[in-house]
Amino acid sequence: MPGFLPDASKSRSGAFDAYGTVLIVSLDGLPDWLPAWCVDHLGGEPSDVLFQVRQVSMVFGLRLAGGTDVVVKARADAGRAASCVAVQARLAGRGFPCARPLTPVAGVGSLAVHAEEFRPGGEVLHGDSPDVAARYAEVFARLMAELATVTVTPPLPNPPWVRWDHTDSGVWPAIGWLDNRDQSVVPGYVVEAAERARRLLLAAGLPCVLGHADFEAQNLRWHGQQVWAVHDWDSLAWQPEAALAGAASGSFASSGPPMLAPIESSAAFLVAYQHIRGRLFTAVEEEIAWAASLWMAAYNAREEALRGDTRVGRDALRAQAAERLRRANA
Predict the structure, then answer these.
(1) DSSP string for 109-149
(2) Model confidence pTM above 0.70
(3) Exposed site from 85, 161, 277, 278, fewest CB < 10 Å?
Protein backbone atom coordinates (compact mmCIF):
# COMPACT_ATOMS: atom_id res chain seq x y z
CA MET A 1 0.00 0.00 0.00
CA PRO A 2 1.39 3.40 -0.89
CA GLY A 3 2.57 5.79 1.76
CA PHE A 4 4.87 8.70 2.48
CA LEU A 5 8.50 9.04 3.52
CA PRO A 6 8.53 12.21 5.63
CA ASP A 7 12.22 12.36 6.54
CA ALA A 8 14.63 12.60 3.63
CA SER A 9 17.58 11.61 5.81
CA LYS A 10 16.09 8.15 6.25
CA SER A 11 16.17 7.54 2.50
CA ARG A 12 19.97 7.32 2.50
CA SER A 13 19.81 3.95 4.23
CA GLY A 14 18.06 2.31 1.31
CA ALA A 15 15.60 0.72 3.74
CA PHE A 16 11.89 -0.01 3.41
CA ASP A 17 9.70 2.87 4.52
CA ALA A 18 6.12 4.00 4.08
CA TYR A 19 6.45 4.72 0.38
CA GLY A 20 7.91 1.29 -0.31
CA THR A 21 11.51 0.40 -1.05
CA VAL A 22 13.74 3.47 -0.93
CA LEU A 23 16.09 3.75 -3.88
CA ILE A 24 19.27 5.82 -3.84
CA VAL A 25 19.55 7.51 -7.22
CA SER A 26 21.31 10.41 -8.88
CA LEU A 27 19.81 13.05 -11.11
CA ASP A 28 20.82 10.87 -14.06
CA GLY A 29 18.57 8.12 -12.69
CA LEU A 30 15.37 10.18 -12.85
CA PRO A 31 12.81 9.44 -15.59
CA ASP A 32 13.46 11.40 -18.76
CA TRP A 33 10.19 13.32 -18.49
CA LEU A 34 10.65 14.52 -14.91
CA PRO A 35 13.13 17.46 -15.21
CA ALA A 36 11.09 19.15 -17.96
CA TRP A 37 7.88 18.51 -15.99
CA CYS A 38 9.37 20.28 -12.99
CA VAL A 39 10.36 23.28 -15.11
CA ASP A 40 6.90 23.50 -16.67
CA HIS A 41 4.87 22.99 -13.48
CA LEU A 42 7.16 24.15 -10.67
CA GLY A 43 9.37 26.74 -12.35
CA GLY A 44 12.71 25.00 -11.84
CA GLU A 45 14.55 21.84 -12.66
CA PRO A 46 15.79 19.37 -10.03
CA SER A 47 19.24 20.09 -8.61
CA ASP A 48 19.34 17.17 -6.16
CA VAL A 49 17.44 13.97 -5.41
CA LEU A 50 16.43 13.72 -1.76
CA PHE A 51 14.88 10.28 -2.18
CA GLN A 52 13.10 8.07 -4.64
CA VAL A 53 10.77 5.26 -3.67
CA ARG A 54 8.55 2.88 -5.57
CA GLN A 55 5.57 0.88 -4.49
CA VAL A 56 2.11 1.52 -5.93
CA SER A 57 3.31 5.01 -6.90
CA MET A 58 6.66 6.41 -7.93
CA VAL A 59 7.58 9.16 -5.48
CA PHE A 60 10.47 11.56 -5.91
CA GLY A 61 11.79 13.91 -3.25
CA LEU A 62 13.54 16.68 -5.12
CA ARG A 63 15.41 19.90 -4.42
CA LEU A 64 14.76 22.39 -7.18
CA ALA A 65 17.34 24.77 -8.59
CA GLY A 66 15.91 27.62 -6.51
CA GLY A 67 16.36 25.66 -3.28
CA THR A 68 12.76 24.54 -2.75
CA ASP A 69 12.19 20.95 -1.68
CA VAL A 70 9.18 19.23 -3.25
CA VAL A 71 7.68 15.78 -3.65
CA VAL A 72 6.51 14.60 -7.07
CA LYS A 73 4.19 11.60 -7.31
CA ALA A 74 3.49 9.59 -10.46
CA ARG A 75 1.15 6.62 -10.72
CA ALA A 76 -0.94 4.79 -13.25
CA ASP A 77 -4.27 6.61 -13.42
CA ALA A 78 -7.60 4.82 -13.36
CA GLY A 79 -9.48 8.11 -12.99
CA ARG A 80 -8.95 8.46 -9.23
CA ALA A 81 -6.02 10.84 -9.00
CA ALA A 82 -7.76 14.16 -9.67
CA SER A 83 -10.34 13.60 -6.94
CA CYS A 84 -7.72 12.47 -4.43
CA VAL A 85 -5.51 15.50 -5.00
CA ALA A 86 -8.51 17.86 -4.92
CA VAL A 87 -9.50 16.47 -1.50
CA GLN A 88 -5.96 16.76 -0.19
CA ALA A 89 -5.78 20.38 -1.34
CA ARG A 90 -9.12 21.18 0.30
CA LEU A 91 -8.09 19.75 3.66
CA ALA A 92 -4.62 21.29 3.59
CA GLY A 93 -6.22 24.67 2.89
CA ARG A 94 -8.30 24.29 6.03
CA GLY A 95 -5.26 23.58 8.15
CA PHE A 96 -5.60 19.82 8.39
CA PRO A 97 -2.14 18.28 8.93
CA CYS A 98 -1.24 17.05 5.47
CA ALA A 99 1.09 18.09 2.66
CA ARG A 100 -0.32 20.85 0.45
CA PRO A 101 -0.50 20.01 -3.27
CA LEU A 102 1.50 22.43 -5.39
CA THR A 103 0.01 21.44 -8.75
CA PRO A 104 -3.14 19.79 -10.05
CA VAL A 105 -2.86 16.35 -11.62
CA ALA A 106 -1.26 16.35 -15.07
CA GLY A 107 -1.07 13.47 -17.50
CA VAL A 108 2.33 12.22 -18.65
CA GLY A 109 1.64 9.36 -21.01
CA SER A 110 -0.30 6.82 -18.95
CA LEU A 111 0.80 8.41 -15.66
CA ALA A 112 -1.03 10.88 -13.43
CA VAL A 113 1.53 13.26 -11.92
CA HIS A 114 1.33 16.01 -9.32
CA ALA A 115 3.65 17.79 -6.90
CA GLU A 116 3.14 18.59 -3.24
CA GLU A 117 5.09 20.33 -0.53
CA PHE A 118 7.72 18.36 1.34
CA ARG A 119 6.53 17.96 4.93
CA PRO A 120 9.42 16.35 6.83
CA GLY A 121 9.69 15.58 10.52
CA GLY A 122 7.61 13.88 13.13
CA GLU A 123 7.77 10.35 14.48
CA VAL A 124 5.83 7.16 13.94
CA LEU A 125 3.55 6.31 16.87
CA HIS A 126 4.28 2.62 17.42
CA GLY A 127 2.17 0.14 19.35
CA ASP A 128 -1.11 -1.73 19.09
CA SER A 129 -2.52 -1.34 22.61
CA PRO A 130 -6.07 -0.09 23.23
CA ASP A 131 -4.67 3.26 24.37
CA VAL A 132 -2.71 3.69 21.16
CA ALA A 133 -5.76 2.57 19.19
CA ALA A 134 -7.84 5.35 20.79
CA ARG A 135 -5.24 7.96 19.78
CA TYR A 136 -5.40 6.81 16.18
CA ALA A 137 -9.20 6.71 16.31
CA GLU A 138 -9.28 10.35 17.39
CA VAL A 139 -7.32 11.37 14.30
CA PHE A 140 -9.41 9.17 12.04
CA ALA A 141 -12.64 10.64 13.42
CA ARG A 142 -11.32 14.16 12.81
CA LEU A 143 -10.29 13.19 9.29
CA MET A 144 -13.67 11.63 8.50
CA ALA A 145 -15.50 14.68 9.85
CA GLU A 146 -13.47 16.90 7.53
CA LEU A 147 -14.10 14.63 4.55
CA ALA A 148 -17.83 14.65 5.21
CA THR A 149 -17.91 18.31 4.15
CA VAL A 150 -16.00 17.76 0.87
CA THR A 151 -17.79 17.02 -2.40
CA VAL A 152 -15.81 15.47 -5.25
CA THR A 153 -16.34 12.83 -7.86
CA PRO A 154 -15.97 9.54 -5.93
CA PRO A 155 -12.40 8.22 -6.29
CA LEU A 156 -13.32 4.96 -8.00
CA PRO A 157 -12.35 2.22 -8.42
CA ASN A 158 -11.55 1.81 -4.75
CA PRO A 159 -8.07 0.72 -3.69
CA PRO A 160 -7.96 -3.08 -4.05
CA TRP A 161 -7.53 -3.77 -0.33
CA VAL A 162 -11.01 -2.25 0.27
CA ARG A 163 -12.49 -3.22 -3.10
CA TRP A 164 -14.84 -5.93 -1.86
CA ASP A 165 -17.49 -4.39 -4.15
CA HIS A 166 -15.62 -5.38 -7.32
CA THR A 167 -17.42 -7.11 -10.19
CA ASP A 168 -14.61 -9.50 -11.11
CA SER A 169 -15.08 -13.25 -10.88
CA GLY A 170 -14.19 -14.82 -7.56
CA VAL A 171 -13.68 -13.30 -4.14
CA TRP A 172 -10.69 -11.09 -4.95
CA PRO A 173 -10.45 -8.06 -7.26
CA ALA A 174 -8.49 -8.90 -10.39
CA ILE A 175 -4.81 -7.97 -9.99
CA GLY A 176 -2.64 -9.60 -12.60
CA TRP A 177 0.66 -9.76 -10.75
CA LEU A 178 -1.10 -11.55 -7.85
CA ASP A 179 -3.55 -13.63 -9.88
CA ASN A 180 -0.75 -15.08 -12.02
CA ARG A 181 0.94 -16.67 -8.99
CA ASP A 182 0.30 -20.08 -7.47
CA GLN A 183 -2.96 -19.62 -5.57
CA SER A 184 -2.55 -22.92 -3.73
CA VAL A 185 -0.16 -21.22 -1.28
CA VAL A 186 -3.04 -19.09 0.06
CA PRO A 187 -4.42 -20.84 3.17
CA GLY A 188 -8.04 -21.91 3.04
CA TYR A 189 -8.92 -19.94 6.17
CA VAL A 190 -7.82 -16.74 4.40
CA VAL A 191 -10.16 -17.37 1.47
CA GLU A 192 -13.02 -18.41 3.75
CA ALA A 193 -12.69 -15.30 5.91
CA ALA A 194 -12.72 -13.09 2.82
CA GLU A 195 -15.75 -14.85 1.33
CA ARG A 196 -17.80 -14.61 4.51
CA ALA A 197 -16.86 -11.01 5.20
CA ARG A 198 -17.56 -10.00 1.60
CA ARG A 199 -21.04 -11.52 1.59
CA LEU A 200 -21.97 -9.38 4.57
CA LEU A 201 -20.37 -6.23 3.17
CA LEU A 202 -22.20 -6.56 -0.14
CA ALA A 203 -25.56 -7.25 1.50
CA ALA A 204 -25.50 -4.30 3.91
CA GLY A 205 -26.71 -1.61 1.53
CA LEU A 206 -25.20 1.24 3.57
CA PRO A 207 -24.54 4.61 1.91
CA CYS A 208 -20.99 5.30 0.80
CA VAL A 209 -18.89 8.21 1.99
CA LEU A 210 -15.43 9.55 1.28
CA GLY A 211 -12.73 8.12 3.54
CA HIS A 212 -9.06 7.29 3.97
CA ALA A 213 -8.51 3.60 3.24
CA ASP A 214 -4.85 3.18 4.20
CA PHE A 215 -4.87 4.54 7.74
CA GLU A 216 -1.68 2.90 8.99
CA ALA A 217 0.98 3.99 11.46
CA GLN A 218 3.50 4.30 8.64
CA ASN A 219 1.32 6.93 6.97
CA LEU A 220 1.11 9.26 9.98
CA ARG A 221 3.74 11.29 11.82
CA TRP A 222 3.44 12.79 15.28
CA HIS A 223 5.01 15.53 17.38
CA GLY A 224 4.43 14.26 20.90
CA GLN A 225 0.69 13.98 21.47
CA GLN A 226 -0.19 15.90 18.32
CA VAL A 227 -0.44 14.44 14.85
CA TRP A 228 1.92 16.28 12.49
CA ALA A 229 1.05 14.75 9.15
CA VAL A 230 -1.36 12.31 7.55
CA HIS A 231 -0.05 11.01 4.25
CA ASP A 232 -1.10 8.72 1.39
CA TRP A 233 -4.08 10.60 0.00
CA ASP A 234 -3.87 8.39 -3.09
CA SER A 235 -5.72 5.82 -0.96
CA LEU A 236 -9.02 7.64 -0.54
CA ALA A 237 -12.04 5.38 -1.01
CA TRP A 238 -15.81 5.47 -1.44
CA GLN A 239 -17.29 2.99 1.03
CA PRO A 240 -19.66 3.04 4.04
CA GLU A 241 -18.35 4.98 7.04
CA ALA A 242 -18.55 1.96 9.34
CA ALA A 243 -16.56 -0.12 6.85
CA LEU A 244 -13.83 2.51 6.57
CA ALA A 245 -13.62 2.81 10.35
CA GLY A 246 -13.52 -0.96 10.65
CA ALA A 247 -10.70 -1.27 8.13
CA ALA A 248 -8.74 1.39 10.03
CA SER A 249 -9.40 -0.36 13.34
CA GLY A 250 -7.59 -3.42 12.05
CA SER A 251 -4.73 -1.73 10.19
CA PHE A 252 -3.81 1.32 12.32
CA ALA A 253 -0.77 -0.31 13.94
CA SER A 254 1.00 -1.24 10.68
CA SER A 255 4.37 0.51 10.63
CA GLY A 256 5.87 -1.64 7.88
CA PRO A 257 4.38 -4.72 6.24
CA PRO A 258 0.64 -4.91 7.01
CA MET A 259 -0.33 -6.33 10.39
CA LEU A 260 -3.66 -6.96 12.11
CA ALA A 261 -4.24 -5.23 15.45
CA PRO A 262 -5.41 -7.28 18.45
CA ILE A 263 -9.18 -7.65 18.72
CA GLU A 264 -9.38 -5.64 21.95
CA SER A 265 -7.51 -2.78 20.27
CA SER A 266 -9.81 -2.81 17.24
CA ALA A 267 -12.74 -2.69 19.67
CA ALA A 268 -11.17 0.28 21.51
CA PHE A 269 -10.64 2.05 18.19
CA LEU A 270 -14.28 1.65 17.21
CA VAL A 271 -15.56 2.80 20.62
CA ALA A 272 -13.34 5.89 20.57
CA TYR A 273 -14.23 6.68 16.97
CA GLN A 274 -17.98 6.63 17.66
CA HIS A 275 -17.55 8.71 20.81
CA ILE A 276 -15.60 11.42 19.00
CA ARG A 277 -17.95 11.42 16.02
CA GLY A 278 -20.87 11.75 18.43
CA ARG A 279 -22.89 8.94 16.88
CA LEU A 280 -23.21 5.30 17.84
CA PHE A 281 -23.14 2.75 15.05
CA THR A 282 -26.28 0.72 14.48
CA ALA A 283 -26.08 -3.03 15.00
CA VAL A 284 -25.63 -3.47 11.24
CA GLU A 285 -22.85 -0.88 11.14
CA GLU A 286 -21.04 -2.64 13.99
CA GLU A 287 -21.14 -5.87 12.01
CA ILE A 288 -19.95 -4.11 8.87
CA ALA A 289 -17.01 -2.57 10.75
CA TRP A 290 -15.82 -5.98 11.92
CA ALA A 291 -16.39 -7.51 8.48
CA ALA A 292 -14.32 -4.78 6.82
CA SER A 293 -11.47 -5.31 9.27
CA LEU A 294 -11.52 -8.97 8.33
CA TRP A 295 -11.69 -8.43 4.56
CA MET A 296 -8.68 -6.10 4.61
CA ALA A 297 -6.72 -8.52 6.80
CA ALA A 298 -7.56 -11.39 4.43
CA TYR A 299 -6.53 -9.35 1.40
CA ASN A 300 -3.18 -8.56 3.04
CA ALA A 301 -2.69 -12.17 4.18
CA ARG A 302 -3.30 -13.43 0.64
CA GLU A 303 -0.74 -11.02 -0.79
CA GLU A 304 1.71 -11.98 1.96
CA ALA A 305 1.32 -15.66 1.04
CA LEU A 306 1.67 -15.08 -2.69
CA ARG A 307 4.80 -13.01 -2.17
CA GLY A 308 6.30 -15.60 0.17
CA ASP A 309 6.69 -13.07 2.97
CA THR A 310 6.95 -13.84 6.69
CA ARG A 311 3.68 -15.12 8.13
CA VAL A 312 2.77 -12.04 10.19
CA GLY A 313 -0.62 -11.36 8.64
CA ARG A 314 -1.56 -14.99 8.08
CA ASP A 315 -0.86 -16.01 11.67
CA ALA A 316 -2.76 -13.05 13.10
CA LEU A 317 -5.72 -13.74 10.84
CA ARG A 318 -5.76 -17.43 11.74
CA ALA A 319 -5.79 -16.53 15.45
CA GLN A 320 -8.49 -13.86 15.16
CA ALA A 321 -10.74 -14.89 12.27
CA ALA A 322 -13.32 -16.80 14.31
CA GLU A 323 -13.89 -13.95 16.78
CA ARG A 324 -14.00 -11.26 14.12
CA LEU A 325 -16.47 -13.35 12.14
CA ARG A 326 -18.58 -13.77 15.27
CA ARG A 327 -18.64 -10.02 15.89
CA ALA A 328 -19.52 -9.46 12.25
CA ASN A 329 -22.30 -12.04 12.46
CA ALA A 330 -20.85 -13.46 9.28
Answers:
(1) TTEEEEEEE-----B-----SHHHHHHHHHHHHHHHHHHTT
(2) yes
(3) 278
